[in-house]
Amino acid sequence: MKTQAAVLWEPGQSWQIEELVLDAPKYGEVKVELAASGMCHSDEHVRDGSVPVGMYPYIGGHEGAGVVTEIGPGVTTVEVGDHVALGFIPACGRCPSCATGKSSICDLGANLLAGVQLSDGTARHHVNGQDAGLMCLLGTFAPVTVVNEASCVKLTKDIPLDKAALVGCGVTTGWGSSVYAAEVSAGETVVVLGMGGVGCGAVQGAALAGARHVVLVDPSPFKRDQAKVFGATHAVATVDEALTLLQDLTWGQLADKVLITVDVADGALIAPAMSLVAKGGICVQVSVGDLTQTEVSLSLFDLTAMRKTLKGAWFGNANIRFDIPHLLRLYMEGHLKLDEMITRTYSLDQVNDGYEAMRKAENVRGVIMY
Predict the structure, then answer these.
(1) What is the pTM of this model?
(2) Which of 255, 259, 301, 342 has the fewest Cβ atoms within 10 Å of its own Cβ atom?
(3) Distance between CA atoms of 12 and 22, rounded to whole angstroms?
(4) Is residue 288 within 8 Å of 315, Cβ to Cβ?
(5) Listed residue (197, 164, 179, 206) closest to 325, CA to CA
(6) pLDDT of 2-17, one tens digit each?
(7) Which of 156, 173, 346 is nearest to 261 (CA)?
């Protein structure tokens, strides 16, 4: 079939709307007609070249939800007509990571940026006569896509699909980073650095876990105002302001947990973030940055003497099979705010407008509607 897709031809360029020729699904694959796609900062990392990918042209998008319209041979977990959310991390359920409860680092994730199908290493998407790669094996910047069933999570049909798209990456990454990676518990003081889609999820996760104080740090006045909607008790512009505030709020103890969810990870931010962490506290590094960066600013004495922990989290240490339906049920019952996260919606041909708004800190989350 023929449709359209937002395609990147090389790093540094804008997304281009091109005709997409889509093959039928093969073994273990499904075709999904999408209702919406979230616009995550990770696609911007691919566009600017800080995250290299395996092939061009490259179809962006890795937050999506829709309806299964065709299945290939061997598919057993979904059928035509099912509503599904697409998880940016596939989960096979059989590798050592999945078998030990760590499906966010499923072995299939090694193929995330290669762009080709998991089943046989070939492409189902073609642009201008060339095989096209897929962001996180999904390519949700197209109204129809073909993906492996390992990336599909079946949903009940009462869940709005435009909201379901958000939990495939950003919301779950942030929420899980608070609840699973940082292990926020009732009465704790939590700091979240950065208020995009991931930061918004982290704020909500901390608030739902019962944190006493949730302090959002972001230079954008718009983001600071929005943070209060999602459960932040305080919002400041800088780490220095956060330090002064924490000293007052906690009588000098500082934050039990700090989460780094800024738009671009930077090793120079680690030391300031760790300066906000209380003795015995935890700092979770969530953000993605330039994959070539290896230098980190950190006081090793402070790390050791204050018994602090610095750890990484991928997809919030969550499990697509459990946590995507779990968070959507929290949304349906009024505990998780997803409607409020969608600052603006766009058509596919407005994808560059949406990312410009993101770069200007004008959106919590932009969503492409099909």
Answers:
(1) 0.95
(2) 301
(3) 26
(4) no
(5) 164
(6) 999 999 999 999 999 9
(7) 173
